[in-house]
Design a protein that fits this description.
The complex is a heterodimer of chains A (97) and B (429).
Chain A (H helix, E strand, L loop, with lengths): L7 H7 L1 E3 L6 E3 L1 H6 L5 H4 L5 E4 L2 E4 L9 H9 L4 E3 L7 E3 L4
Antiparallel strand pairs in A: 1-6, 2-5, 3-4
Chain B lengths: L4 E7 L3 H12 L4 E4 L14 E3 H7 L11 E11 L4 E7 L10 E3 L2 H14 L3 E3 L4 E7 L2 E7 L2 E10 L6 H5 L11 E10 L2 H7 L6 E8 L7 E7 L3 E9 H7 L3 H9 L2 H7 L3 E11 L10 E2 L2 E3 L8 E2 L4 E2 L1 H21 L4 H4 L1 H8 L2 H7 L3 H5 L7 H13 L10 H9 L5 H14 L1
Parallel strand pairs in B: 1-2, 1-10, 2-7, 4-12, 10-17
Antiparallel strand pairs in B: 3-6, 4-5, 4-6, 8-9, 9-10, 11-14, 11-15, 12-13, 13-14, 16-17, 18-19
Helix pairs in contact in B: 1-3, 1-9, 2-9, 9-11, 14-15
Classes of the chains: A alpha+beta (97), B alpha+beta (429).
Chain lengths: 97, 429
């Protein structure tokens, strides 16, 4: 028996979500484009933010609702990310917590 | 729901909010407790253990009915380098007897129990409702806005948790500094109850807690491991500025961490059932925002109430204490019929009387200690190397411990630097 690393996708797949049709995350593109640090790419525990062809894309469905991205973005980026709580009942549903 | 008015609206059914709602409803006030999760606890995660003294004051003998996991009798502080671990272990079987010392808990269940207490006491609970904003009039908080509805109250108690979006909206705090906040990520690892009893050498219903220092690739932070009934809560806590600076992905960091021989042996054979994350406010008293304004009180993690002094990491019991203090302040305001900031300021005195702010003051130097990178890198490494040397026989003349230590320090830390750090530890703890 040994311990194995689990990919992030597998870990997120274990979680329960109630996915909303509308995003609780917004990124202001004009600010994001100017941002050189793109700190959101590594601080987010769910890797919600990714670069695709130099453009930031985000999968709000995976969000664990910790709030790290906004603090990093305002503190070390351009403050392009706006994060609000998902609508009532939607988003992550912790079964253990 | 328009035009409805309550005595009190509490935002968030975690330990702070449910405690406040419970105490106020019990005194006959009309209380609305609003929770954005489908049920209480659905949005909450903890390391974590809850210290029982304060909870027992509000909910006497809560352990007889609350879904606690294990009574913690084994406390461990572990220093890690890449290949070994030095553990300071304290076992106290007396902690397995009432009133206990601390319990491991899982929030999905625990928070539901506490919210249930508030409901039993007469509070009205609405779940699945996100509070989007406060209703303000002339700088006074008059109620909340949720969805399209406005609901009014004499006073709003904010127990929304660490993101504290309403505190910001109320103008009581500015942006958080990434150097003041950590992100905690956790995996719940399922293991049979008997395997846990055996592996951690604890009696039935008893559990172990671990604080781990070092082994995080130089990132400012640490690890934790707590035993639940039939699962382990394993996680790391990493300061956000440190992740930014090192460009380390926190979700990869925790997987690397699990591969450390000390940790992998503790979780071996288990299967992960949940992956969660939350932020923690690390700057102590200096980070605590203004705690009240007209018609508004801030409690729990929303008020950055957290004590981390290496030996204990306290958040949930401070949340309960602050919820209780807020309830007392509201009762006084209700008697006077005055919910202005000056009446509600009694909240702060109550938070001193129950030692929340005094304890935070006592450890107010600890956060600065954590700014010192050597605490997370050089010293755990030195301690482990020294122990490795002391416990083994070398093909060279054996040195006395202190001489060996001086030799290991070369190139890592100067003697006066180390003495200075030691003095800072002494002053902080």
């Amino acid at each position: 028996m040994s311990v194995e690393k689990l990919t992030l996708d597998k870990r997120l797949g274990l979680n329960k979500y109630e996915i909303d049709s509308e995003s609780h995350i917004e990124v202001r593109e004009e600010l994001c484009r100017e941002c050189e640090t793109k700190v959101c790419l590594y601080v987010c525990p769910a890797e919600v933010y990714k670069l695709e062809d130099d453009k930031l894309v985000y999968s709000y469905e995976d969000c664990l609702e910790c709030g790290t991205c906004v603090i990093a973005c305002r503190g070390g980026g351009r403050g392009a990310i706006t994060w609000k709580n998902p609508r009532g009942g939607f988003g992550i549903v912790y079964r253990y917590g | 729901m328009a035009e409805e008015k309550f005595d009190v609206i509490v935002v968030g059914a975690g330990p702070a909010g449910s405690t406040a709602a419970y105490m106020l409803a019990k005194e006959g006030l009309s209380v609305l407790l609003v929770e954005r999760g489908r049920q209480a606890g659905a949005k909450n995660m903890t390391g974590g253990i809850i210290y029982s003294r304060i909870v027992h004051e509000v909910f006497p003998r809560f352990w007889e009915e609350a879904p606690v996991e294990r009574a913690i009798t084994s406390y461990n502080i572990v220093f890690l380098n890449g290949r070994s671990a030095l553990t300071l272990n304290f076992k106290c079987p007396r902690f397995a007897d009432p009133p206990y010392n601390a319990f491991s808990v899982l929030r999905a269940k625990f928070d539901q129990w506490m919210a249930g207490k508030a409901e039993e006491a007469g509070a009205m609970i609405v779940t699945g409702a996100t509070v989007d904003d406060l209703v303000m009039e002339d700088g006074k908080v008059k109620g909340i806005r949720s969805g399209g509805d406005e609901i009014f109250a004499d006073v709003v108690i904010d127990a929304e948790g660490a993101k504290s979006l309403l505190v910001e909206k109320a103008g009581l705090r500015g942006d958080f500094n990434p150097a003041d906040v950590s992100v905690g990520v956790k995996e719940v690892v399922e293991l049979p109850e008997e395997v846990i009893d055996e592996r951690f050498a604890v009696g039935k219903g008893e559990g172990a807690a671990f604080t781990l220092i070092g082994g995080l690739q130089g990132v400012v932070g640490g690890g934790f491991l707590y035993t639940n009934k039939s699962s382990l809560s394993l996680g790391i806590v990493a300061r956000i500025d440190s992740l930014m600076e090192k460009k380390v992905k926190v979700h990869e960091l925790i997987e690397d961490y699990k591969m450390h021989p000390y940790i992998s042996r503790l979780i071996e054979g288990g299967s992960i059932v949940e992956y969660s994350a939350a932020i923690l406010h690390e700057r102590g008293l200096r980070q605590v925002p203004k705690l009240y304004t007209d018609g508004f009180l801030v409690t729990g993690s929303a008020a950055c109430l957290l004590i981390n002094n290496l030996f204990t990491l306290r958040g949930m019991d401070l949340a309960v204490a602050s919820g209780a203090a807020a309830a007392k302040a509201v009762l006084r305001a209700k008697q006077k019929g005055d919910f202005s900031a000056s009446t509600l300021s009694a909240y702060e005195s109550f938070l001193r009387e129950n030692f929340v702010l005094t304890d935070m003051e006592t450890f107010s130097r600890v956060p600065d200690l954590m700014d010192n990178r050597r605490v997370f890198t050089v010293y755990p490494e030195l301690l482990c190397l020294l122990m490795e040397s002391l416990f083994s026989v070398h093909p060279a003349p054996t040195m006395k411990a202190f001489r060996r230590l001086r030799e290991l320090m070369k190139g890592r830390v100067g003697l006066f630097e180390a003495l200075g750090d030691l003095f800072k530890v002494y002053r902080a703890l």
